[in-house]
Records
---
Amino acid sequence: MSTATARPEATLPPGTPVITGWSAVSPYGIGREEFAAGVRAGAKTAVKADAGLGPLPSSDVCTVPGFDIQEQLGPRGTAKMDRLTALALVASDGLLLDADGNRAVATDELTGVVLGITMGSLENVTDFLRQSYTNARPFYVDAGRIPFGSLNHAAGATAIRHDLKGPNTTVAGGRVSGLLALNYARRLMGQGRATKYLVGSAEEFSAAHAWFEHTATASGDPAPLLGEGCGLFLVEQAEAAERPPLAAVLSVETRVDIDDDPGAAVTACARRALQRAGVDAGEVWAAVPCAAPTAAGRAEHEALAALVPADALSRVPSMELLGDTSAASASFQIAAVLAVAEADADSRGRIALVSAVDRDGAVAVAVLRLMGEQR
Amino acid sequence: MSTATARRRVVLTGFGVISSIGTGVEEYTAGLRSGRSGARPITRFDTEGFGQNTACEVPDFEPGRWIHNVPLDDMGRAGQYAVAAARMAVDDAGLTEDDLGERQAVITVGTTDGESHDIAVLLEQELAAGDPEAMDPVLSRRINAGRLSTVIARELRMPNVEATTVTTACAAGNYSIGYGLDSIRSGEVDIALCGGADAVCRKAFALFKRFGALTPDVVRPFDKDRQGILTGEGAGILVLESLESALARGARIYAEVLGYGLSCDAAHPTAPNRDGIARGIRLALDDAGVKQEEIDFISAHGTGTKANDKTESAAIVDVYGDAPPRTVAVKSMLGHSMGAASALGAIACGLAIEHGFIPPTINHRETDPDCPLDVVPNAAVEADVRIVQNNSSAFAGNNAVLILGTYGE
């Protein structure tokens, strides 16, 4: 290891958030190892949709293989559980428990949860409304499913499962929501409201989601290939971290594209994120755009290509391989950087940049310093 | 434990209100003072078969008065409320588009249901045609909750913002204000537009009806004969500003945001939790540096359901003892406006401080012995109001409590 990258954590200002653990439930499979192996192999994940999903606008999907809610979480409390909540709960187990199911991470009343979403479980809400429209009376709806229809349910259920009584928040922002969640945790830890955070974002695949996305797609764009999953991180502050940091969050910057020029918005946002992080664009070792299958996604890629070294953009395989995972995407992008870094001894001390653009106009960029030892 | 390196003071300099008891600060203040009820027949969706059809709808909303830069079709009803309230709030604060412009800011809107009304309309279209291809793309493009915040940035021409929609259900308004407070306190931004928005929808109405939590007549929080909520709607947006920024431009200051607390019950997905609420209150008082005896009144979550009012009262008594501050429920007037509720509650608190009154709990006949509180029944009282607590709780066990105080000293 060269001296240039030795002990970079020593230079982090107090309060810098550091990522000290991660987990993923993704189209690559259930768990961190499956995700890391899939990313490093650059494997495709699209499969023919399960017939049980009913008619779909596109037969190809990037669902989590073999994800059965009862099989993953047992029979108790899961009969009417939405898929989004189940994805988040399984990811939280992966983050907080060891292979034998024992707690591996200490938590207390200052442990927070912040989860990014798009619009929660659209399957739950449309099923509920369908019952309201088609049953004998408009309120003859399945009461057992109602709690799962609350947009903050997955975050609250994660807290219940692991007894996490700190600030518990759900933020909505589609593809940028994972970065909004990271910034939320950064700000609240900075004000002393939590000392440790579960931060991430999640999206479920459902026929309802697919049809909404299909009808929303701009004419000219193909029917989107949709993915799903949940990426979660353990985030602490550098000076108080109980586990070795994998990456430091040097900056998270956000912007809204108010002029229908997503490329310019990404450029401005990325430049400021780099400036805040105190690093030069030329230092970026890995840059991971969200790769949305839209004009905004293409503009995002061009903006980064004009900003960072060419090999930075090819360091991590494209997120296209996972399909459009919407709210889960930014967390998967960060996890993908960590997965590539942990297999590359040269990554330590390097800079990674993660960007996202959403249909509703939000843009976000995070700049990380990779700090993990090679595994 | 805190590693906060900075803790700047944060004040409220503008309010925007869309509510069932009045649009704009003046009408809303008059509504609160006079104990106006927002309950009226539902017009938004077909209520046939429900056996009741009352909600607290906004009766007189004219989006074109407030929304000039973004096509109205780009947002649903909740988005229109959010944008209109934001426009109103920056006007009220005396901020122009030139003042805002490239300025770095936070825009945070809380919501429970977002554009769930549009989702219901889309489903109606699918059911009528027997084909999901029949869904209107104009609607399906605008159903995601993130838009409630980004569309404000687009309307106000503010690109340099963090636009975060907080979907922590019925506590989301307080969550948003708290996030704005933290963003400004740390010194990272000088201004934040925060609050909440929701629109009456079939989803909420059917849900509370199914839960047996929809009152057949009026909302009577803390009353022994209370029977539940009425669903409501609207938006409340507050301009939060660093004290330096407000003073530098000579802004009118309604109140200071003294602190807030967030607690998670980690216990039950829908039932309120006495310990969780009490912990949220204590965290808020501690964050604000305020003692129990300094609170002049509490604006309760006060939904009017059996479970909430009893549990919340017990939590208040746990913190305050046998002589708690007067505790009022503005939901008696506004119904439960969901994600907008605690934002409208916070504005009510700010107006109470500004004008020296405590809004009433209307429709009140006899206080429940399980709710041993002075609820300021039926008529507002004049009072020197200096420090106020605004409660909120949500499904999933989330509590957010905000403390506002008079600016001065």
---
Amino acid sequence: MNIMAPVHDLKGARLQIAAGAEEIYLGLRSPVETGMSQMTFTGRYNMSGKNEVAQVQTTEELAEICRLAHDHNVLVNYTANVRYLNEKLTGLYLDHVCRGIAAGVDTLIVGNIGAALLIQKEGIKLPMHSSTFLFGYNKEHIKYLESIGFTRIVLTTQFSMDEIRDICESTNAEIEVFAQFACSNINGRCNLLHTPYIAELYDGYDMQCRGLYKIWNDHEDKSNVPLLYAGLDCSICKLKELKDAGVTVLKILGRDRIPEFIAPVTKIYRMCLDMYDKGMSSKEIREIVWEKAPWWKSFCEKKACLYGKHKIDDSYIV
Amino acid sequence: MKISIRVSNTEQLKDAIKLKPNYIGIGSEYCVYKVPEYEVLSMMLDQIDKNGIKPEILTPFVPETHVPRIMDLIISLNERGTPFDLTINDLGLLKLISEKVGNRCFDMYIGHVYSTSFENCPWHEKVLSEESEEIKEGWCQNNFVNDLLLEHMCSMGISGVELEMLPVMLNKSTKYFRNKNIKIKGMLDYIPSAITRACHIARYYDKKPSFECTSYCDKVLNARFTHRYIPDNTEEPYEVVNEELIRPVTPDYLIIGNAIYCKREVDINEKNINNVDSITFDMRAFSIEELEKRINRLKEIDRKCEGKEVVSI
């Protein structure tokens, strides 16, 4: 199982490769002359909710990152990832794809059926990976994505281990899952977006799904309810099961985080995978993780386990 | 212009029939358990047929275990032979229907799960404020304003789209669909802003999503964001939000099951009405009186539209 780590600059690429990522993924800011400021064709804004850069800023830097990655046999996955691609945007989108290809990226992460059809119509031969924007919860959906040319499919975080296993068995496509920091809503259909503007108001803490709410209707009136909180944060105890299920790629989230913060997360997941390969148990591994990164313990205390048994899983529509 | 009312249970169905809409919708865009089993659905459809109303069946994203049931349901409805509109919100299901259900007596529409735009984001104007006019328009147009995508969907049997009646959507996207002979159903007032597989209402009421919990989704739960989450502070992870700053940007949310809606009233005028084939109301979002008033207002506007059909109410 490969680890795919997020990158938004050359420094981050160096750190992630050193941390043990076999693959990196990244986006590229669109040039100013396109009329785009915060918007991008990468599935993220140019800046993050915490006003950190989330995209590689120039094609030259992207090319340098690709060279570095290829020198280390690391795959470069390029986000050509949009939810909305109408006629007005297709020309600019195609330019974005071509800039990535010219810089040397290896694959395209695509989140829109129209975009996938456009890429094929243009004769672009790079492998296409579906993003979570193309979510679905049945095998027919996976077959459909395969039938239109996707070679890797990323699952949303709201899947059980049994479902992941079942999907892996049913498809020839590679299956990718998220390692950490799962969304409460379906990523491809949530518009309560963390954005620079909102983050400014919220002083950076803009995850509305994790906040508290006053709720009311004719029969209810309550305060301080974590009504929308359905995110889970860690999968280290489930890595062996994910690998055994047939998952081929583990995605580390955090393109919009500073490299010094996110590369250590990659390093922990790399270390865990290596320890599983040596036959260690999840309990032993967890204890080593707590020693190396004491803050990790808070996930365990909250029992914020992805792909495991959590009260949040009971609310999944299955 | 026609009126459609979506109902959530048999009581709401009785009320909806009294309002004499052109369509009545049963099922759900978001939760598979809100799609009734065939016996219940069949009884509801008999009531709708008797009153000369056309049924709409809504299907959501479908988890693997429900695929056979939903497919059987669609096949049974097709065999029943009475024409209806089917809203699809799952590409896997669409693929299956296109391959396995021939001689269809139903028209297929792409629903709100896929048919959407950045205009659904409550603070989209703020986010887009620094973008060029072209980019603003591009991001706010409907996702299906795309020749390749639309042709592809039509090849799988889609003949219409559902969309939210928001300004850019109405002024720009609908023209495109009209030119392509795509039918348009517009949803008024309630804008779906997020959906999840982890049902918010089920979690709140400590239920596992099932056919038994569906009545919890027959009404709206209002939610106002009051405390932000500070992940770095494990002792006190919540902090009261600054009302003055936050409130103008963050609306109150309306939660129905696993869907989060925002209310946005759009100025409905003659032009807007003529841009869509039908306007949809969700019965859960209105009292009967409110709904009647809203429909009467539409009827008034529609009457002013020269040469256009008058809403049948």
